[in-house]
Amino acid sequence: MSTRQLRVLFLPPQAMLGYRAAHTPGSGPDPRDMEQLLAAQGIDLVTIDPTGRPFNPLAGRHPMLEGMDLWRALRVMLFERHADLVVSVNDGAAAPLILLRRLFGFRVPIVLVDLSPAERWRIRRRVQDFVIPRLDGVLVVPSSQVAYIAQRWSNSVPVEVVGVLIDTDFFRPTADPPGDYIFSIGQDRGRDFPTLLAAMDNVPADLWLRTSRQLPPETATMKNVRLLRERVDDRQLRDLYGGCRFVVAPLSETANANGVSTIQEAGAMAKALIVTENPAIRDFIVPDETCLMVPRHDVAAMRGAILRLLDDPGLCERLGRNARRFAEETCSLAPYALRFGAALRRFASTA
Questions:
Q1: 265: Cβ contacts below 8 Å, ≥ 6 apart
Q2: Cβ-based neighbours of 263, under 8 Å, separated by 6 or more
Q3: Strand 85-89 vs strand 137-140: parallel, antiparallel, or unpaired?
């Protein structure tokens, strides 16, 4: 494998540089750690944020739209012609690059990382149908998306599975004993909170639920459910994980790996998990070793798993210990950086 120095452009859908500059140690996962590990592999990761208004009229809109920054694309085409690789986070940033690359004779490979398959949003479906078949590669989180890409677009699109990154130094077990509540969190459409809430009926424990999603009306009258609507920062989130008995990730079947951050953050905190079966998250769990897995939309199975963990602290401890080890071995900074860096080198070599 070549060890020459690479210049890789990283195009996020929203501004990252200000957050990185303002980051203080201990306030959350350090966004500079990955850059440092890639630099040790001879890969210079250069972040180029989307521009603001008036040059980017979609600034401040949905990240996919904000990422479709024509001004940034022109900057890349004109001034980064000697880069080794362009990495578009999600599909928005890739769209103007793909549209203009032939006009400008831009030969730098363009790859996408963290594909979010559009299952309902028509605009995003059209963007992905234009972008994905014309990319030089896709780096996906779950291995299930390899077949998804081949079926929906083409098996000729090069795909690398890189998994997910969790900062296991920031999310780590605490010395404090667990609290007396069950915790669940999520904002995406892939969360099946109605099943979880139905399963909590008459359960002798409290559920703390952090979400902005619309919930069934009867939730407001459930005495053992505490809704957390306010935004929480990384330290507050870590405290919520640390203080709970265990974590529940109720999921619907999606092509996205919805819930994977919750699963790996909780696992890194050595918390037992209940996870709904979904092919897109099977890479990140080991049923009966790192979690209890239940069928989708099965209220009785969900309630049974909750009662089982409430009644068996030893099982909670075993699942949490195994989940922590799994997170360290597969999703922590060092193994992730090796996978990600190797994938970047393989795609850069196609130039």
A1: 166, 171, 237, 241
A2: 249, 273, 275, 281, 284, 285, 291
A3: unpaired
